[in-house]
C-alpha cells in the first residue's frame, strides 16, 4: 500500500512538473512576442518616415540634373547627391526588412537545421563556389526560443561575410555545441585574409564597411539579434590566417529588451 502511494505521489509530481514547464514556456513565448512587436513597430515607423524625404530629394535632384545642362561642377554635385540618396535608400530598405519583426513570432528553433538553411542560402548548390563547408554539430542540442528571422539573418550575415572575405575560395568551419551555464556556442570560422587589428574594434559599428557596395549593417545586425536574446558575439581574427565569430546564447532566457 505504502509502495503504491509512493508511486502515485511520484507520478503526480512528474505530471505537475511537466505542466509547470509547459506554463512557464507559454509565458516566455508570449512575453518575447510582445516585446518584439513594440520594437518592430518603432523601427518600421522610423524607416517609413525617412523614405519620404529621401524620395523628394531624389526627385528634386533628378529634375535639377535635367534642367542644369551647363556647369560641370553642378552636375557632379547633383550626381553625388543622387548616389548618396540611393545608398541611404538601400540602408533604409534593409532596415525595413529588419523591422518585419512585427509579423514574426517566437518559435522553437533547431540550431543545426537553421545553420543548414543559412548555408543553403549563402551557397546555393546551383552556384559552384570553391568553398568547402565543414560541419561539427553536437547531438541533442537544446532548441532556441527565437524569431526564425533573427537567427537566420545572423547566420546568413556571418556566412556571407566569410564568403566575401575569401572571394569564394577556401574553407568555412561551422560548429554548434553546449557551453557552460546551459548555453549554446555557435562558431562560424573561415581561413580567409583575417581582419587588421586596428579594424576589429570597428566592425560591429553600424555602417562600418570596407566593401564598395557594403552597407556595413551586417555585423551590427548580428550583434543586435544576438544580444536581444541575452547572447554575446565574439570575434577572433589573425591576418593571413582567418576569422572566427563565436555566438553564445543562453538556452533559456528572457529577452534583454526594454519594456
Ligand atoms: N569573415 C571576415 N573576414 C574578413 N573581414 C571581415 C569578415 N567579416 C566582416 N569583415 C569586415 O567587417 C566589415 C563589416 O562587416 P559587415 O557585415 O557589418 O558589413 P559589410 O559586409 O561590409 O556590408 P554588408 O553586410 O551590408 O554587405 C566588412 O566590411 C569587413 O571589412
Ligand atoms: Mg556583411
Summarize the structure.
This protein has 259 residues and is of the alpha+beta class. Helix content is 53%, strand content 20%.
Question: How are the secondary structure elements laid out?
Answer:
Layout: H1 2-67, H2 72-98, E1 106-109, H3 111-122, E2 130-137, E3 144-147, H4 148-165, E4 169-179, E5 183-190, H5 197-200, H6 218-227, E6 232-238, E7 242-250
Parallel strand pairs: 2-4
Antiparallel strand pairs: 1-3, 4-5, 5-7, 6-7
The site of adenosine-5'-triphosphate (ATP) has 20 residues, from helix 4 and helix 6.
Class computed from helices, strands and strand pairing:
alpha+beta
Q: What is the distance, rounded to the nearest whole angstrom, between the alpha carbons of the first and last residues?
A: 53 Å
Q: Provide the helix percentage.
A: 40-55%
Unreliable sequence segments: 254-259
Question: What's the domain count?
Answer: 2
The CATH first-level class of the largest domain comes to Alpha Beta
Shape: globular
CATH superfamily of the largest domain: Histidine kinase-like ATPase, C-terminal domain
β-strand number? 7
Ligand catalogue: adenosine-5'-triphosphate, magnesium ion
Number of helices: 6
In CATH terms, what is the architecture of the largest domain? Answer: 2-Layer Sandwich
Order of helices and strands: HHEHEEHEEHHEE
Largest sheet: 5 strands, mixed
Mean pLDDT: 84
Amino acid at each position: 500500500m505504502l509502495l503504491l502511494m509512493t508511486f502515485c505521489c511520484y507520478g503526480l509530481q512528474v505530471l505537475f512538473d511537466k505542466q509547470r514547464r509547459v506554463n512557464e514556456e507559454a509565458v516566455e513565448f508570449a512575453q518575447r512576442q510582445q516585446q518584439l512587436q513594440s520594437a518592430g513597430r518603432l523601427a518600421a515607423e522610423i524607416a517609413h518616415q525617412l523614405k519620404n524625404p529621401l524620395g523628394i530629394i531624389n526627385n528634386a535632384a533628378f529634375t535639377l540634373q535635367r534642367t542644369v545642362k551647363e556647369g560641370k561642377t553642378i552636375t557632379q554635385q547633383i550626381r553625388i547627391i543622387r548616389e548618396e540618396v540611393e545608398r541611404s535608400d538601400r540602408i533604409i530598405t534593409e532596415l525595413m526588412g529588419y523591422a518585419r519583426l512585427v509579423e514574426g513570432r517566437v518559435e522553437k528553433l533547431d540550431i543545426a537545421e537553421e545553420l543548414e538553411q543559412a548555408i543553403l542560402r549563402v551557397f546555393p548548390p546551383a552556384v559552384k563556389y570553391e568553398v568547402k563547408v565543414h560541419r561539427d554539430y553536437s547531438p541533442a542540442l537544446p532548441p532556441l526560443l527565437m524569431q526564425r528571422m533573427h537567427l537566420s539573418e545572423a547566420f546568413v550575415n556571418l556566412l556571407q561575410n566569410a564568403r566575401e572575405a575569401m572571394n569564394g575560395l577556401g574553407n568555412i568551419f561551422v560548429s554548434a555545441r553546449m557551453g557552460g551555464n546551459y548555453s549554446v556556442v555557435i562558431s562560424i570560422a573561415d581561413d580567409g585574409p583575417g581582419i587588421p587589428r586596428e579594424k576589429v574594434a570597428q566592425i560591429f559599428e553600424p555602417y562600418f564597411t570596407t566593401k564598395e557596395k557594403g552597407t556595413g549593417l551586417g555585423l551590427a545586425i548580428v550583434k543586435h539579434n544576438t544580444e536581444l536574446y541575452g547572447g554575446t558575439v565574439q570575434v577572433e581574427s589573425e591576418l593571413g590566417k582567418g576569422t572566427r565569430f563565436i555566438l553564445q546564447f543562453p538556452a533559456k532566457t528572457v529577452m534583454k529588451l526594454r519594456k
